Amino acid sequence: MKPANSLLSSFGTTVFEVMSRLAIEHGSINLGQGFPDDSGPDAVLQQASKFLFDKPNQYPPMLGVPELRQAVANHNKRFYDLDVDWQTEVIVTTGATEGLAACFFGLIEPGDEVVLIEPTYDCYQPIIKRAGGIPKVVTLRPPEWKLDIAAFKAAFTDKTKLVVLNSPMNPASKVFTEAELKVIAETVIKHDCYAVCDEVYEHMAFDGRQHHPLMTLPGMRERSVRIGSAGKTFSVTGWKVGYVTAPADLLQPISKAHQFLVFTTAPNLQRAVAFGLGQDDSYFNGLRDTMQAKRDRLADGLSRVNGFECVECEGTYFQFVDISGLGFDGDDAAFCRHITIEAGVTALPVSGFYSGEASKNFIRFCFAKQDAVLDEAVGRLAAHFGG
């Protein structure tokens, strides 16, 4: 028989799926895959239930229901002072990942180069390559996660079409500084290209840090695409509701790609998310403060486990840990298998987020879990390693 697509077939099963299967097999506490273990805010859930019966359950507009597109525009103004035309500059997507795919398929021509800052979320490279793009990778290394300005600028050529910026950054838990954003913006403008900004953790920047969309910098309003996620902002990852803000001339090809990917998203969920985005500041501040407290709870616990050294987490809901002090005979992937099977706690190997050489002594935990679950995980690790 003729082979399937060779490019996509060349990518293995994601590290998320591999470790989650192993966690299920061994009854392990899964702190690997990044999703909260609660149901989301009751008020938003109630709206989803209400709209399931109050509105038609037929195809909504391809760009998204007006209520949510207006709410996204208002959200941009409220938090970032961005003036957005909801009718021509906002589209609703079936999750942020589909939004990314629509951006890549809509903006990339075969042979275009795309600058990526790794470690990266694992969907970026497969979709970019399938769109015909050529990734040019700039590597950040733990524990500092400092952007190498010279290497970043050197990644751009006259073939560069766009840069992908993820801030707050999954999996590095880095919030890009204003100085770094300025360099990124200046480089994008110099090379007359675009920026696709994955900002799904926008409301999870900790310790007084502020998330600044690249779109807000001088000269970047007409060059930036900004992607948000209801799954992350309202802890409902299964809903798969994302939203893309872009200048009208960029949104047009993005919407054409979206049209042929999924066309539309569940209308009751869209309207519930519109309600959610309109909540007062106490919700968004509460989300940030709750996640920061969970970060501190997990980091404090892990710091008491022999050989575990936590890396500073600036945002998102992921905690990096340096395991070099344990003297483990194996790499990060082997270590994650070991603690899943022997200690009953699952993490992710950080090397799985790199396309090239990566440090083999860092693992990642997700702390968006109930406090009792985090405490039990720490207890199991302490019992296994001492602490």
Structural account:
The protein has helices spanning 6-9, 15-26, 42-54, 66-80, 95-107, 124-130, 149-154, 178-190, 230-233, 248-261, 267-277, 281-303, 332-343, 371-385; strands at 29-30, 90-93, 113-118, 134-139, 160-166, 194-198, 224-229, 242-245, 309-310, 318-322, 345-346, 348-349, 362-366. With 387 residues, it is of the alpha/beta class. It folds into two domains: 6-39 and 282-385, Aspartate Aminotransferase, domain 1, CATH 3.90.1150; 42-279, Type I PLP-dependent aspartate aminotransferase-like (Major domain) (Aspartate Aminotransferase, domain 2), CATH 3.40.640.10. The strands form three sheets. The chain has a seven-stranded mixed β-sheet with strand order 2-8-7-6-5-3-4, with helices on both faces. The chain has a four-stranded antiparallel β-sheet with strand order 9-10-13-12. A two-stranded parallel sheet has the order 1-11. Helix 2 runs parallel beside helix 13 (332-343), helix 3 packs across helix 11 (267-277) and helix 4 packs parallel to helix 11. The model has no long low-confidence stretch (mean pLDDT 95).
Keywords:
four-stranded antiparallel β-sheet; seven-stranded mixed β-sheet; Aspartate Aminotransferase, domain 1; alpha/beta; Aspartate Aminotransferase, domain 2
Quick synopsis:
This protein has 14 helices and 13 strands. It has helices at residues 6-9, 15-26, 42-54, 66-80, 95-107, 124-130, 149-154, 178-190, 230-233, 248-261, 267-277, 281-303, 332-343, 371-385, and strands spanning 29-30, 90-93, 113-118, 134-139, 160-166, 194-198, 224-229, 242-245, 309-310, 318-322, 345-346, 348-349, 362-366.
